[in-house]
Amino acid sequence: MAVAVIGLVISSAANVEGRSSRNSDENLVASFIFGDSLSDAGNNNYFSTLSKADIPPNGIDFRASGGNPTGRYTNGRTIGDIVGEELGQPTFSVPFLAPNSTGKAILYGVNYASGGGGIMNATGRIFVNRLGMDVQVDYFNITRKQFDKLMGPSRAREYLMKKSIFSITVGSNDFLNNYLLPVLSIGARISETPDAFIDDLITHFRGQLIRLYQLDGRKFVVGNVGPIGCIPYQKTINQLNEDECVELPNNMARQYNAKLKDLLTQLNENLPGSTFVYANVYDLTMELITNYKQYGFKTASKACCGNGGRFAGIIPCGPTSSLCQERGKHVFWDPYHPSEAANLIIAKQLLDGNTKFISPMNLRQLRNLS
Ligand SMILES: *[C@@H]1O[C@H](CO)[C@@H](O)[C@H](O)[C@H]1NC(C)=O
Ligand SMILES: *[C@@H]1O[C@H](CO)[C@@H](O)[C@H](O)[C@H]1NC(C)=O
Ligand SMILES: *[C@@H]1O[C@H](CO)[C@@H](O)[C@H](O)[C@H]1NC(C)=O
């Protein structure tokens, strides 16, 4: 039987000895991942786009590929990869557009995330092609039907509701590659105040999350928008000092995040049987950036791989980029994305941390909910 092959690790608080129990039907986990380049595991490899990470040295520390690029926008694993591994997923979720995302491979979960994608369809236009959230949910609807075929409708439903986690990390591009982009979005910025734009984002996102619920998603983790004013790209183009961040993007992110938190509370109250967990990526990343030395990093401002300006923050990571010596000592891998070392610290907090960073429960607790 297909399901029985899925291994798992029980690591609930009750399991203090750290024993693991494999092949028990109790704690299977499939991970369905949605969002942008923070989670993309290769979807953008399968269409033409200006947002790509299938070139070295991206993936240089990704063991499963022997250090070859996979389409991940970092040197190693993404936060979604690490969380899945820790929760007992036997393989990483396959990218929806990869040829091997068929048959039983999808039982461990599928990744729909796309570099450049956002909540709004217009977001990421600058990259020409990318998958926005509306399209990602359409794709999940295709996967949903495949589950009925693989397991039969009633077991499929049970499996998606109880044994699956839906992770969504999106929104950064709606600011960076839509509203705050000077040339392309000048129309939107003239016609919409920041408040109105943020309300629009929340309205669209609510609809997308409700569709996932209609398709039997019950356990959700939703990442808020990080401190996008502190990324090497912003520091470079605004010629900031090492310890400065750009105010407007950070302010917009915080304003959006407050409304996102309210949205998730509302959904928890109104969608029976659902659990929406709020992942405070903003505060987690800000903590790393502010106190980077305490976490063993040498810099939280300079990209490890990139080119341009003081922080290597203009040209994305590729074969001709300068590459840092100590990849584990940079908070940022490239002008936009955290390194695997930073992802490991963030993932650990999401898995086991307290309500300061992950609420109303952490991801191990979410996984163990029955
Ligand atoms: C699917 O293919 C990708 C690369 O194309 C590979 O990284 C991954 O391990 C494969 N996954 C499975 C479950 O076969
Ligand atoms: C976004 O695009 C998708 C697919 O092209 C479409 O189904 C959807 O209605 C669009 N959403 C909006 C808000 O225009
Ligand atoms: C899923 O697809 C079916 C058509 O195959 C459609 O009727 C249904 O509305 C879709 N569900 C969602 C939530 O998009």
TrEMBL record:
- InterPro entries per record: GDSL, GDSL_Est/Lipase, SGNH_hydro_sf, SGNH_plant_lipase-like
Q: What is a single molecular function from GO for this protein?
A: hydrolase activity, acting on ester bonds
Keyword Ligase set for record: no
Q: Which Pfam families match?
A: Lipase_GDSL (PF00657)
What GO terms describe the biological role, i.e. biological process, of this protein?
lipid catabolic process
- Keywords of the record: Hydrolase, Lipid degradation, Lipid metabolism
Domain of life, per lineage: Eukaryota
Q: Which CDD domains match?
A: SGNH_plant_lipase_like
Q: Which PANTHER family match?
A: GDSL ESTERASE_LIPASE, GDSL LIPASE/ACYLHYDROLASE FAMILY PROTEIN (AFU_ORTHOLOGUE AFUA_4G14700)
Protein family membership: Belongs to the 'GDSL' lipolytic enzyme family.
Record's protein name:
GDSL esterase/lipase
Originating species = Nepenthes gracilis (Slender pitcher plant)
